[in-house]
Specification:
298 residues; alpha/beta; eight-stranded mixed beta sheet; two-stranded antiparallel sheet; 18% strand; globular; binds iron/sulfur cluster
Length: 298
C-alpha cells in the first residue's frame, strides 16, 4: 500500500483499511494545523488506488470498512469519488462503509444528487473538523467558512443520509468568548445531529501560524479551569437523542466518554468532581508535548 508522509486517522477508525487517494490537504491554511505543512496536496492516480486495493484484497479480503486518506479526500470531485467507491466494491465486496476526513468547504462543491449517489455507494460517517459554531473562532482558525455555511452544508450532508463525526476545538475562541463559543457550537451540533462529538483543545506546534500569536500574547490560551468550563457549558447545552461524546483525545484536560443523552448527567458529575480535584491548578495552563497531548497539569 502506498502512503506519503505521516498518515493520520481518527481513533475510532483503528480497524479500517487506510486507502490513500490524496496526499496532504487542499486547504492547508488552518491557523492551528501543522499536519501537512511539508506535504504538497496531490491526487493519487486511480491506477495506484486500484493497485493498493488489489494488494488489500490479498491480505484483508473481508474488509468491511475503508478510511480514505489524507487530509481532505472529499475535495475530490464526486465523479472521482464515485470511481473510487466502485473500485472499492469491485476489489473488496464486503465493504459496508467508506469514510474520510471531510470539510464544510468541500461539501459545497457537490450537488444534492451527487451526495445521495455517494451515500448509495456506502460513503458515510465522515470525520469533519467543524471545530466551532462561532464565527469569531472560525475566522481566527482560518477555516474558510462561517457558521451559517457550516449549518447549511452539514444539513445537506445529513439530508443525503450521510452521518458525520463532529470535531470540536475547545478554547478556539480564546477565554473571553468561551461561553459564546460553547453555546454556538452546541447549537450547530444539535441542529446537525452528528453520530459522534470528538473534543480536543487548541494547541499549536511551532510550524502552525497561531503559534507565534500565542507566544506574543496576541492569542491567549485558555487556562485549565477555562477549558473545563467550556467543555461543561458545551455538554450542558447539547441536546441530542443518540450521539457518542468522545472526549479522549490526549490534548483534553479531562477524559470523558459516554453516550448522549443517557450519560449526560454522569459526565457533568464527573466534570464537577474533577473541578474540585484540580482546584489549585485551575488558573494555570497545561504543559504539553507533541500533538498537544497533556504532559503535565501543574
Ligand atoms: S485542519 Fe484539516 S482542513 Fe485545516 S489545514 Fe489541517 S488538514 Fe487541512
Amino acid at each position: 500500500m502506498k502512503y506519503t508522509g505521516i498518515t493520520y486517522r481518527p481513533p475510532f477508525e483503528a480497524g479500517s483499511l487506510l486507502l490513500q487517494v490524496t496526499s496532504g490537504c487542499s486547504h492547508n491554511k488552518c491557523s492551528f494545523c501543522y499536519m501537512y505543512k511539508d506535504v504538497p496536496f496531490s491526487v493519487e492516480p486511480i491506477e495506484q488506488v486500484k493497485k493498493d486495493l488489489a494488494e488489500a484484497r490479498e491480505y484483508y479480503p473481508d474488509t468491511r470498512r475503508v478510511f480514505l486518506e489524507n487530509g481532505d479526500p472529499f475535495s475530490l470531485s464526486a465523479r472521482r469519488l464515485i470511481e473510487i467507491g466502485q473500485a472499492i466494491h469491485e476489489y473488496l465486496p464486503k465493504v459496508e462503509n467508506i469514510s474520510m476526513y471531510a470539510s464544510i468547504r468541500n461539501i459545497k462543491g457537490k450537488s444534492d444528487e451527487e451526495l445521495a449517489q455517494l451515500r448509495e455507494l456506502g460513503f458515510n460517517q465522515f470525520n469533519i473538523g467543524v471545530e466551532s459554531g462561532l464565527d469569531e473562532a472560525l475566522k481566527l482558525m482560518n477555516k474558510g467558512y462561517n457558521a451559517k455555511e457550516a449549518f447549511y452544508e452539514l444539513s445537506r450532508l445529513r439530508n443525503a443520509g450521510i452521518d458525520y463525526a463532529a470535531n470540536v476545538i475547545l478554547g478556539s475562541a480564546g477565554p473571553k468568548l468561551l461561553r459564546e463559543n460553547a453555546i454556538a457550537t452546541a447549537r450547530l451540533i444539535n441542529e446537525t445531529t452528528p453520530y459522534l462529538v470528538f473534543t480536543t483543545t487548541l494547541h499549536a506546534e511551532p510550524v502552525s501560524p497561531i503559534y507565534e500569536d500565542m507566544k506574543s500574547g496576541k492569542f491567549i490560551e485558555s487556562t485549565i479551569g477555562e477549558y473545563i468550563e467550556e467543555e461543561e457549558i458545551l455538554l450542558k447545552n447539547l441536546d441530542l437523542s443518540d450521539t457518542l461524546f468522545f472526549g479522549l483525545h490526549p490534548s483534553n484536560i479531562l477524559r470523558l466518554y459516554g453516550r448522549l443523552p443517557d450519560d449526560k448527567n454522569a459526565l457533568l458529575r464527573e466534570i464537577k468532581a474533577q473541578k474540585i480535584r484540580l482546584e489549585d491548578k485551575l488558573d494555570s495552563r497545561p504543559i504539553r508535548r507533541s500533538e498537544g497531548s497533556i504532559f503535565k497539569i501543574d
